[in-house]
Specification:
Largest sheet: 5 strands, parallel
CATH superfamily of the largest domain: Response regulator
Number of domains: 2
Order of helices and strands: EHEHEHEHEHEEEEHEHHEE
Number of strands: 12
Strand order of the largest sheet: 2-1-3-4-5
Strand content: 15-25%
CATH architecture of the largest domain: 3-Layer(aba) Sandwich
Structural class: alpha/beta
Length: 237
């Protein structure tokens, strides 16, 4: 039996029945440790004593706006965030993506699908680079970085791990596959593969903006990911 510590998921949802369902999905038959919070203040209290590997966040909380809360979390931590909300507006989805949340699910959600999304985020969050790991086709170097496909992480040359959301990772991987070539927005939408979520060209631009913030020395003068006006983007390096 493995002695590895369990992953810790924090569910932040003010509606008790919904919170219970989310906690049940996150627990994954006892494989995951789950904490629950009904308010932003309770969430802060939990995180003050116990770091989380994943936060499932409702946007409609009684004491604080969920988008503001997500922004606070992202400024001080790379912990994966899955937003679960009844707000189906495009503006809210784009605002959440711009903040840097890792996934966005609207209610009512499919229980099996959400359970899989939770497990996928946890698997990436808990991934630890194996000592002595060598360069392989699964590890692609560019500029000052290495994109590790097996662990789904981005490493900087000084050893720092750069957190990428799922969609940021998929877009960066797609650009790397066609390094030094122009890649259309449509091709990048296909790379995301979230047809049910209805992503748009605007969403691609937001993902690129977030990627540039993480890897470019100067976002106003990007040297790694350049814009191909009216078409898409190109990665060089």
């Amino acid at each position: 039996m493995s002695n590895a510590p369990k992953a810790h998921v924090l569910v932040v949802e003010d509606d008790q029945p919904s919170r219970a369902v989310l906690a049940y999905l996150a627990e994954d038959q006892g494989r995951v440790r789950v904490s629950q919070a009904a308010t932003a203040s309770e969430m802060h209290a939990v995180l003050a004593r116990d770091a989380a590997n994943l936060i499932i966040l409702d946007l409609n909380l009684p004491d604080e706006n969920g988008l503001s809360l997500a922004r606070q979390l992202r400024t001080r931590s790379d912990v994966p965030i899955i937003v679960v909300t009844g707000d189906v507006s495009r503006d809210t989805r784009l605002a959440a993506l711009e903040i840097g949340v890792d996934d966005f699910q609207t209610k009512p959600y499919d229980l099996k699908e959400l359970g899989l999304r939770i497990r996928n985020q946890l698997r990436r969050s808990m991934a630890i680079r194996r000592p002595g790991q060598v360069e392989s086709s699964a590890r692609v170097a560019f500029d000052r970085y290495v994109l590790d496909h097996s662990e789904r992480i981005l490493e900087r040359s000084d050893g720092v791990t750069i957190h990428l959301t799922r969609n940021e990772f998929m877009i960066l991987a797609a650009l790397l596959r066609r390094r030094n070539s122009s890649v259309s927005r449509a091709a990048l939408l296909d790379a995301i593969g979230n047809a049910d979520d209805g992503p748009s060209d605007r969403a691609i631009d937001i993902y690129i903006k977030n990627l540039r913030a993480k890897i470019e020395a100067d976002q106003r003068d990007p040297r790694i990911i350049s814009t191909v006006r009216g078409f898409g983007y190109r990665l060089t390096g």
